[in-house]
Amino acid sequence: MVVAVAAAAASSTWLTCALLPRQGWLHGIQQPTPSLQWTNKKRCCTRKAGSTITAKLELKPPPYPLNALEPHMSQETLEYHWGKHHRGYVDNLNKQIIGTELDEMPLEDIIITTYNKGDILPPFNNAAQIWNHDFFWESMKPGGGGKPFGELLQLIERDFGSFEKFVEEFRSAASTQFGSGWAWLAYKANRLDVGNAENPRPSDEDKKLVVVKSPNAINPLVWDYSPLLTIDVWEHAYYLDFQIRRPDYISIFMEKLVSWEAVSSRLEIAKARATEREEEEKRKKEEKEVGNSDNQAVEMFVDSKSDDSETE
Amino acid sequence: MAFRPLLSRTLGLTQTLTHSHNLSQLRGLQTFSLPDLSYDYGALEPAISGEIMQLHHQKHHQAYITNYNKALEQLEDAIAKGDSSSVVKLQSAIKFNGGGHINHSIFWKNLSPVSEGGGEPPHGSLGWAIDTHFGSMEVLVQKINAEGAALQGSGWVWLGLDKESKKLVVDTTANQDPLVTKGANLVPLLGIDVWEHAYYLQYKNVRPDYLKNIWKVINWKYASQVYGKECP
């Protein structure tokens, strides 16, 4: 594919590194956060003559046929958007990561690793766009739209004032993301607004729903948020059906396409994950305190001159 | 460069003015209007379809101009009131929309129908400079196409002239950033819009095909003129 060749020609140094398993993407780069549970797998397989090694990422189809979102999103759009753009990201990422440490890593780990705290590595764009598009197809359904329900609706009303105000904010984010990008509803837990700073006094108030927008391939995973809903505002997402009329596309998306069931189940998972993390952090803190008190006990035994000694 | 003919046309604006627009003129605020193309929308076919040319010019470029004018008016108010917050907040709208107006104004001049010399390589000093700096036209085209295809998201690919060093450069800008944001001495000779709206209806996801074909309608005469002014 010409694009991949062009990209390779433009940046041949990283491509060369990719062919050396020991070096490559993680050379000199900090490990991802422990919560991702990535381990340094040894590459023990040998390449036999004639055998092909393929990176294993596959293009996942949307959970409905390509014409199922008509007339709100045309079959033609799905054919190009999923069949060409999304497929292209998968094919290109496979070519980029084959034979490197990124190969066989879960997609989310590839995204965080290649985001590289903002100093973005070449595979990031493809990896993140694969994830973003999977997430986008699953954010819609035939006969979608309407209103959310249950706990999701409660949280929306709590954090935005009302469902209408949330829709207003989401539409605004989607229309004002200049150039290519995405708008998101996300669940934010115990993260301060300043970079990756740890919240020293986490409380339930820090867990909330937020609307955010992001340029090009960036998504809220890199900010450690849990995405719940997205709309693609790259021009290719709406140009065949709406041309320049992005606001109309956004309206149709909200009124006819959003799958609130998907958003609700993602919220449940996000909350469970936040709770799990809290418990793990609490456990770690307790282990640390036990460790400290052990040290103090040793000192007390050594110092027998204290008044607290049992000997008279 | 591109602005002088636009401003003189603006001073002659009539029926489409709104009341507030009139007031702005009274206060001396220059407003901008859509420059005409010197060719029909369909004249660049088959390289670029008439449908795209019409949408691109009448809708996209016009929207940048409308929003640019609005932002400038708001900026003027904010400056007059000493409202620094608003002044700073308006910068991104001015950059997006003003940049969009600058870039597209150049772009229409970078194109011309085959019947009017579109696609004909530059002779004279620019042709010579290209051969000197890049080796050949083929190499330049390959470089521009590679950078244009590799650009992630929306933006432009440029052939520019550094007016200090007199060197030709190939560079890209993101979104609607004008070339000057990559270097104060850079003068745009030729820009190719690689936002999806520039090619999607015709080429869909195959941006490399758009880049391959656009050279058939590139107006090297304009680029040579600009070059000649900086390097007489």
UniProtKB/TrEMBL annotation, chain B:
It comes from the Eukaryota. InterPro entries: Fe/Mn_Superoxide_Dismutase, Mn/Fe_SOD, Mn/Fe_SOD_BS, Mn/Fe_SOD_C, Mn/Fe_SOD_N, Mn/Fe_SOD_N_sf, SOD_C_sf. The keyword NADP does not apply. Residues 123-225 form the Manganese/iron superoxide dismutase C-terminal domain. Mn(2+) binds at H56, H104, D193, H197. The keyword Mitochondrion applies. It holds the Pfam family Sod_Fe_C. GO terms for cellular component: mitochondrial matrix. It is found in: Mitochondrion matrix. Its cofactor is Mn(2+). Its main location: mitochondrion. Destroys radicals which are normally produced within the cells and which are toxic to biological systems. Destroys superoxide anion radicals which are normally produced within the cells and which are toxic to biological systems. Belongs to the iron/manganese superoxide dismutase family. This is Superoxide dismutase.
